[in-house]
Every structure is written in structure tokens, then in C-alpha cells.
Amino acid sequence: INPHFLYNTLDAIAWLCEDGQNKEAEEMVTSLANLFRISISKGHEMIPIEKELQHARSYLKIEQIRYKDRFTYQFHVDAACMDYLCNKITLQPIIENAIYHGINQMPDEGRIDIRVFSEEGDIIFQVEDNGVGMTQKQCGEILQRESGDSVGIGIKNVNDRIKIYFGDEYGISIASELDEGTCVTIRMPKIKEDKFEK
Question: Which among 54, 62, 60 has a CA at the least distance from the CA of 38?
Fold first, then answer.
């Protein structure tokens, strides 16, 4: 989790308290606690998809309050996928990128759709936004970022972790059109807890 995100969230909570917006402040504190609880996950790298979605929802709730409802979001989840495992903190860096570099730069209201479904024996995650979009060159560069780069390193880290765990046939692909939006697709194998631990 980016330290600036934590500072900004705590500042926003303090401002909400000063302004008497106690309900919103309570929602942000609860979401922040959930975010960190799932991030730690007792040191496990792999967590159930259900927990990963809770993590993403907590992050989105915080950002929606911070950005004063400048965007909406919706989850489309195949319930049959919920018990499979995924690398923790997979969705949050993708969503963060969609907000900061896609939606935040547009004058109109943003939209983020998060999908989880099964395809050809694998689990597919998608994060699609209606933001400013990118060129094909920019899409390719995001997955090649180095640790000194300030933009997109979170997406590269997610991609690298998936490939280390599951092989080069899995990971992230990005489709984008300028002024139309971006769709990030993440492919992982179906892993059940008992199989993974053996």
C-alpha cells in the first residue's frame, strides 16, 4: 500500500471528523482497517478470491469518499469462483491505476467495472474503466516498468508475482483506446486451498 494513500486517507478522515461527517469518517476507518487486515492475511501470499474482493471493495469505498463520488463502480462476480485462491493484493494496484491515471484526468464521471469469471479452466479478473485511455505503446511499457518508475510499477509487480507462482502463460494483458478507456485482464489457474497447500 502506497504510504501517500495512507497519509491522504488519514487526512481525509480527520477532515470528515472536523466537518461533522461522522458516518463517512466511520466508513473510511472501517474500510481502512479491513484493507490492512486482508493485506496482512497472516503472512499468506494466496488468499480466497472472496477476501481479495473484500479488499478491493474497501479500497474503492475509501477512494470514492476521498474523490467525492467522482466515479461509480460495480462488481460482476461469478459466485462459483469465490472459493478459489489468488495472489493477495491483485486488484487494488489495477484499480488504483484506473483511478489515478484514467478517471482522475477526465472531466466527466468515471466508471469502473470489476469482473471475475471462469474461462477455459482458469480464473479471469478484469478491471475496466471509461477513463482517458492509453496508446498501445503505453500499455506495453507499463508491464516493463523498473522499480524507480513512479507510474504503473504496481501493475508490473502484480504481473511478476503471478508469473513467478504460475508460469508465463498467466498474468496481465492490457487493452486500451485513447479517450475510450482501459481494460486490464488478469489470468490465473484455478487453485483450491487443499491442493495448493499439498
Answer: 54
